[in-house]
Amino acid sequence: MRPATIEEIVGQEHILGPGKLLRRAIESDRLGSLILYGPPGCGKTSMAEVIAKTTHRRFERMSGVVANVSVLRGVLEAASGARRREGRETILFIDEIHHFNKSQQDILLPCVEDGAITLIGATTHNPFFFVNSPLTSRSQVFELLPLSEDAIALLLRRALTDERGLAAIRIRADDDALAYLARVCEGDARRALNALEIAALSTAPDAGGVVALSRQVAEDAIQKKAVVYDHDEDGHYDTISAFIKSVRGSDPNAAVYWLAKMLYAGEDPRFIARRLIILASEDIGNADPHGLLVAVAAKEAVEFVGMPEARIILSQATTYLATAPKSNASYLAIEKAYSDVKEGRVLPVPAHLRDTHYRGAEKLGHKGYRYAHDFDGHFVDQEYVPTDKVYYAPTDQGYEESLRRRLEAWRARRKAAGPGAGGGSES
């Protein structure tokens, strides 16, 4: 059921729609090297084969999983020979190109540079991490998206009537069954078509010779859904990113969904707990100081209890933090101050704040400190750093509103005290 023409490709309108760059390049046979990046079953290989049929170049394909250096050199030599003898360029399609090591990828460079081959690399991994930068800089990178449910449903209906598919079998498929397959396959057309084929071939026809595909048959065909989640690559980082951003964005429903996906896929619950601790300070801070306590307690409880019950603890912490008032004022404060120190604006410690617990300190001018607890409201106006720059600016969110009002009151007292009040004598 692979598409034979551009028109048969379903989805990817953002790069293959009428007038889009990749479509124009394919139709005019002006294609340069490119890397197709996207999840399984989104059409990377199909697109490469359509390109091969549409253009007038030689087409070679190999897999990054099984090809070795000698095979690669043989293909490149043949491509260079065809260019010399026939003036024909070669499209070299490498599936799973991220499996090539640096040396293998470097071998491609000269042929890509001199035009002996037009490279089409396909990968499920972010090419800017897993493909050498010399190759990515000489190629256009196109990201393919998971197919929509409507797109997969269209492919399933096409497979039922196409001679290349299941047209030889009389099938009556319920719309509910096709919609179910389209939904649970998470944009993976290959998985949806495989499930449809299994359902059609394993279901006995009725008395009239018709195979009836119901929702129940579809569920049996797909069995348990496998979660796409690679623990040290894109799936891992993308999912934890979505999780943290959902908590930060105060969406407990989205956050719990991404939490469930990570736990179902076998993510280390301690890793999730550590990230919640960071978020509790970075994104909630003093708007709800209890957030950090909840996150730290969750981390301790997760280590003590373990899975599967740890998922309940993580869910409690996640929903609490997602619904807590948000502020990044504490995070911004340390970032600004750290930047000032790092960039060389290091300020001296005022004399009245310096240590006085050694002989000769007073002779060095280490005196004049005013003890705050001896003053009304346990506050005294004196200089604590020789700059007026504001690092911590509490928001009006949650408990931080109280902190903001308190700081404003102290600021008013400093202003009322007038110039020169900051020195003071020892109390």
- Class from secondary-structure proportions: alpha/beta
CATH homologous superfamily identity of the largest domain: P-loop containing nucleotide triphosphate hydrolases
N/C terminus separation: 87 Å
User: Could you describe the largest sheet, including whether it forms a barrel?
Assistant: 5 strands, parallel
Strand order of the largest sheet: 2-3-4-1-5
- Count helical runs: 18
CATH architecture of the largest domain: 3-Layer(aba) Sandwich
Give the SSE order as H and E letters: HHEHEHEHEHHEHEHHEHHHHHHHH
Strand residues, percent? 5-15%
- How many domain regions? 4
Which regions are unreliable across 5 or more consecutive residues at pLDDT < 50?
A: 422-427
The CATH class assignment of the largest domain is Alpha Beta
Chain-averaged pLDDT: 87
The CATH topology of the largest domain comes to Rossmann fold
Nearest-angstrom radius of gyration? 32 Å
